Amino acid sequence: MNDAIQDEIIEQFEGLEWFDKYGLLISFAKELEPMSEEFKTEDNAISGCQSKVWIRSHTEDGKLIFDLDSDAMITKGIISLVAKVVNNRPPQEILNADLYFIDKIGLKSNLSPARSNGLESIITRIKEVAKEEADSNT
Amino acid sequence: MTDFAKDFPILSQKVYGKRLVYLDNAATTQKPDSVIDTMSDFYKTEYSNIHRGLHYLSEVSSEKYEEARKKVSDFIGARDPSEVTFTSGTTGSINQVARSLEPSLRGNEVLVTGVEHHSNIVPWQLAGAKVKAIPMDEDCKSLLDSMEITNKTKLIAIAHVSNVLGSVNEIKEITEIAEDHDIPVLVDAAQSIQHLPIDVKDIDCDFLAFSGHKMYASTGVGVLYTSNRFSDIMPAIGGGGMIDKVTFEETTYLAPPLRFEAGTPDIAGAISIGAAIDHMQKIGMNKIKDHEHEVYSYARDKLLEMDNVTVYGNTSQMCGAVSFNLDNIHHYDTGLILDKMGVAVRTGHHCAQPLMRSLGIEGTVRASFALYNTKEDVDMLIEGINKVEMMYK
Predict the structure, then answer these.
(1) What ipTM goes with this model?
(2) What pTM does this model have?
(3) HSE of B188 in the Cβ direction (CA atoms, 13 Å)?
(4) Which of chain A's residues have a Cβ under 8 Å away from the Cβ of B363?
(5) Which of the following is catalytic: A42, A49, A60, A136?
(6) What percent of the residues of chain B are helix, what percent strand, and what percent coil, each to the nearest 5?
């Protein structure tokens, strides 16, 4: 499955050196609306050794919207991309989504479970939420 | 300064097209050719199980293994090689003591310092003891005057050097206080054995634990020194190789060290520790200490000079590791960008969550040093930090 949002992200990262990639991630992080402090609770947290991620979600017209934040900028940049890709889609579509852009833009190492328990657990959480929503709709 | 790095083949490679600056030595150290060759030669020509066979190779293996034990014994100033047990590492050593002393620890207290890593906290809790920390000041120095020893204190277990801060604990003062109260002391030397000359008789501790892989030897192997005062404690693990006589009714055990080494040990690993000691002694522990002190002080001073950097912890003696954070920049971000500059550091809580809580932070960036690091490595770290700041402007 190819999708336009992921393809556009891949295009933006194409040919960039590492520093520029990180620079771009930092600028994406700055664009992401910060989560209100009151929601940065343990319940909403995906906590690893390296950086913290908070995740909330709600539905609008049957589409899922995720609100994400992190205390580390590069992590925040990556999750802002994840949000771009998964937000405003029907739960079943998110459940089936293949987030191939992570590998294509060279962030696959950030997927490893040992590294910050990061992206892997975030994607797992997103899929869980999507599954719950999809199940409750059937 | 002579180029100690040339003995370590891994250090000559480039990462991301840049010279590798390896500053994650508190996590694990790189291996010199002499250690790699010793292990390789052992497997190629000498390998066999030890203390079991009467054949030629078993004799050779046993001899090499016991030779390594003797080297460790001499290296740490033990009275006799029987005080040296090979374990799986620092964590294995500490767990072994916790298990052996469990009957006296259960329901009682173990006193530790405020800078301990989880390996010197969790095993005592698993043995049913309450872990109590000696209070410390804002520089993370233990306040020995406030040390609370009660009749429930059954052991004092302390890191020689903090794996996060590099601060050196006053272990001799602590063993003296402990002696007055007749309480045994375990010293976790995981972060000191590779940096400072150690003499267990001088320290006067009852147990000393360290890992092979942090002192240029192999992973999965370590040492537990057990003073001969404790030679009759029960072994933590039972099985083959440590028994005197077994019947279905009763078992009697061999004398130390074999009583504490059930099963087939990491023979090649133990031999690699011997080779690592040879390597360090060829240079000389005092020379290593002086060289590292020079590089370490240079790094610490440079970091302290930076307006936007916070350096944690400070005692009269520091070595090995320095922990810091850049103002308003997450340690994870700093670590990721330094990595791309070829500078390998560690970020996070460094398995010392209680210390992070007392510092009021989530984690740090830690640069940690070994004998092969130089001032040029430090310059690369500082250059990397400047680059991180530039990226965040």
Answers:
(1) 0.85
(2) 0.92
(3) 30
(4) 49-50
(5) A49
(6) 45, 20, 40
